[in-house]
Amino acid sequence: MEGLELLCFKLISAAGTARSCNIEAIQEAKKGEFEKAEQLMKEGEGLFLNAHEIHNTILAQGTNGGNTDGSILVMHAEDQLMSAEMFQIIAKEFIDTCRRMSELERKVN
């Protein structure tokens, strides 16, 4: 495996792992483990940035005459990247909501 195919698999791996970190962060926040949740979010952000750099490399190849149009693998990799971005946004909102609920529960009890 080399070239565009290798880049696509690297992108899929980084984006998929970033998404998993965000999902785990939500699970930790639900347990009230906010420090662990923030740590997982930071890890996910680093992987997401790595995925974006790979995506930029793929786009640069396309603009420099490389053939990336219509590749199912490229489309799948881009779909994974968008999915990771959406989970990052959702996880941030969910962790914030869990944190607020935890603070309210402490005040009530």
TrEMBL record:
Superkingdom of origin: Bacteria
SUPFAM superfamilies: Enzyme IIa from lactose specific PTS, IIa-lac
Required co-factors: Mg(2+)
Keyword Transferase: yes
Cofactor note: Binds 1 Mg(2+) ion per trimer.
Binding sites annotated in the UniProt record for Mg(2+): D79
GO function terms (MF aspect): metal ion binding; transferase activity
Active site location: H76 (tele-phosphohistidine intermediate)
Keywords from the UniProt entry: Magnesium, Metal-binding, Phosphotransferase system, Sugar transport, Transferase, Transport
A GO biological process held by the record: phosphoenolpyruvate-dependent sugar phosphotransferase system
UniProt cross-references to InterPro entries, sorted A to Z: PTS_IIA_lac/cel (IPR003188), PTS_IIA_lac/cel_sf (IPR036542)
Residues found modified as Phosphohistidine: H76
Stored Pfam families: PTS_IIA
Protein name: PTS lactose/cellobiose transporter subunit IIA
Organism taxonomic ancestry: Bacteria, Bacillati, Bacillota, Clostridia, Thermoanaerobacterales
